[in-house]
Amino acid sequence: MSNRILMFIAALLIVFPLLVVRNTEFAGADVLAEEMIQQIAPNYEPWFDVFFEPPGGEVETLLFSLQAAFGAGIIGYIIGLYKGRKRNG
Amino acid sequence: MKKPLFLLVSVCFTVYILFALSPSVYAMHIMEGFLPWQWALVWWLLFLPFFFVGLRTMTRLMKQKPEVKLLLALATAFTFVLSALKIPSVTGSSSHPTGTGLGSFLFGPFVMTVIGTAVLLFQALLLAHGGLTTLGANAFSMAVVGPFVAYGLFVLCKKCGISLRMSVFLAAMMADLVTYVMTSFQLALAFPDATSGVWGAFLKFASIFAVTQVPLAITEGLLTVVVWNFLHTYSKQELDVLAERGVSLK
């Protein structure tokens, strides 16, 4: 299968839940797990807290998108480099 | 690459990154402080030997075959991208892929332990996702179990005569899925259910993590094949160099 088709299927898989599943905010699975822990062990207290937390969702979003952008940039650069190298023999 | 294909690639990456930008972003690893210290310690101790062997393997590889450095950067970047993307799933919640499969076939599972741990550490320190006390447990599932399953399955698929791309797909998909099965198991051991015990708790956690992960694992498998196709077309010589070390990548 060509990359085009593979990417298309991948995109479909991501869009499908958005169209089909309603009335949900697509919360993170870890938050649900946290609720499950509180249900199973109601007396459990987290014994350690994070050193640094991004101040608010927007900053967190920035850091996450930087992580993705940085990675995507490197992937593009390396594949481009390999491609150019092959073309130039 | 032809222009329409390039456009399509850009669109797909944009779609992915837009999901990473959604306001309710969460990590899928065990949160800081959410494992009792005894369990945190157990997983740290189990994880550390793999990490040290990984460091040694990686430095040796860099010394012997410096030409594969770029490929190592690519595998790292792939893990960084995929674990930054929260993707909606059919269960109505979100999770993110792991991206550990690709590096596992290329460099072997131990090297991927180091790379996966680097990503987890980054997310624990800067993004408050996962945590330092739970790093041992999270690294054990994502950077040890995932890569080892990927590598083992890849070798097995090839032995069974399954085509190369299909092997890549299956191994990357299972590495992703098994990471979250392991996470569920770790949580179940620490928080057994009062009536149904560890197994009952495992089913509960797995219903959150593993089920959500199924479509994401398939997506990860597909994207891994996409990158693999590029490598197979444009960087044959690096793959040849890596193949000398063991499993054939052709």
Automatic annotation (TrEMBL), chain A:
<dbReference type="GO" id="GO:0009236">
    <property type="term" value="P:cobalamin biosynthetic process"/>
</dbReference>
<comment type="similarity">
    <text>Belongs to the CbiN family.</text>
</comment>
<dbReference type="GO" id="GO:0005886">
    <property type="term" value="C:plasma membrane"/>
</dbReference>
<keyword id="KW-0472">Membrane</keyword>
<keyword id="KW-0169">Cobalamin biosynthesis</keyword>
<keyword id="KW-0812">Transmembrane</keyword>
<comment type="pathway">
    <text>Cofactor biosynthesis; adenosylcobalamin biosynthesis.</text>
</comment>
<protein>
    <recommendedName>
        <fullName>Cobalt transport protein CbiN</fullName>
    </recommendedName>
</protein>
<keyword id="KW-0813">Transport</keyword>
<keyword id="KW-0170">Cobalt</keyword>
<dbReference type="Pfam" id="PF02553">
    <property type="entry name" value="CbiN"/>
</dbReference>
<comment type="subunit">
    <text>Forms an energy-coupling factor (ECF) transporter complex composed of an ATP-binding protein (A component, CbiO), a transmembrane protein (T component, CbiQ) and 2 possible substrate-capture proteins (S components, CbiM and CbiN) of unknown stoichimetry.</text>
</comment>
<keyword id="KW-0171">Cobalt transport</keyword>
<keyword id="KW-0406">Ion transport</keyword>
<keyword id="KW-1133">Transmembrane helix</keyword>
<feature type="transmembrane region" description="Helical">
    <location>
        <begin position="62"/>
        <end position="82"/>
    </location>
</feature>
<comment type="function">
    <text>Part of the energy-coupling factor (ECF) transporter complex CbiMNOQ involved in cobalt import.</text>
</comment>
<keyword id="KW-1003">Cell membrane</keyword>
<dbReference type="InterPro" id="IPR003705">
    <property type="entry name" value="CbiN"/>
</dbReference>
<dbReference type="GO" id="GO:0015087">
    <property type="term" value="F:cobalt ion transmembrane transporter activity"/>
</dbReference>
TrEMBL record, chain B:
<feature type="transmembrane region" description="Helical">
    <location>
        <begin position="105"/>
        <end position="128"/>
    </location>
</feature>
<feature type="transmembrane region" description="Helical">
    <location>
        <begin position="135"/>
        <end position="156"/>
    </location>
</feature>
<keyword id="KW-0472">Membrane</keyword>
<dbReference type="InterPro" id="IPR018024">
    <property type="entry name" value="CbiM"/>
</dbReference>
<keyword id="KW-0170">Cobalt</keyword>
<comment type="similarity">
    <text>Belongs to the CbiM family.</text>
</comment>
<keyword id="KW-1003">Cell membrane</keyword>
<dbReference type="GO" id="GO:0043190">
    <property type="term" value="C:ATP-binding cassette (ABC) transporter complex"/>
</dbReference>
<keyword id="KW-0812">Transmembrane</keyword>
<comment type="function">
    <text>Part of the energy-coupling factor (ECF) transporter complex CbiMNOQ involved in cobalt import.</text>
</comment>
<keyword id="KW-0406">Ion transport</keyword>
<keyword id="KW-0171">Cobalt transport</keyword>
<keyword id="KW-1133">Transmembrane helix</keyword>
<comment type="subunit">
    <text>Forms an energy-coupling factor (ECF) transporter complex composed of an ATP-binding protein (A component, CbiO), a transmembrane protein (T component, CbiQ) and 2 possible substrate-capture proteins (S components, CbiM and CbiN) of unknown stoichimetry.</text>
</comment>
<feature type="transmembrane region" description="Helical">
    <location>
        <begin position="168"/>
        <end position="190"/>
    </location>
</feature>
<feature type="transmembrane region" description="Helical">
    <location>
        <begin position="202"/>
        <end position="231"/>
    </location>
</feature>
<feature type="transmembrane region" description="Helical">
    <location>
        <begin position="37"/>
        <end position="55"/>
    </location>
</feature>
<dbReference type="InterPro" id="IPR002751">
    <property type="entry name" value="CbiM/NikMN"/>
</dbReference>
<keyword id="KW-0732">Signal</keyword>
<dbReference type="GO" id="GO:0015087">
    <property type="term" value="F:cobalt ion transmembrane transporter activity"/>
</dbReference>
<dbReference type="GO" id="GO:0009236">
    <property type="term" value="P:cobalamin biosynthetic process"/>
</dbReference>
<keyword id="KW-0169">Cobalamin biosynthesis</keyword>
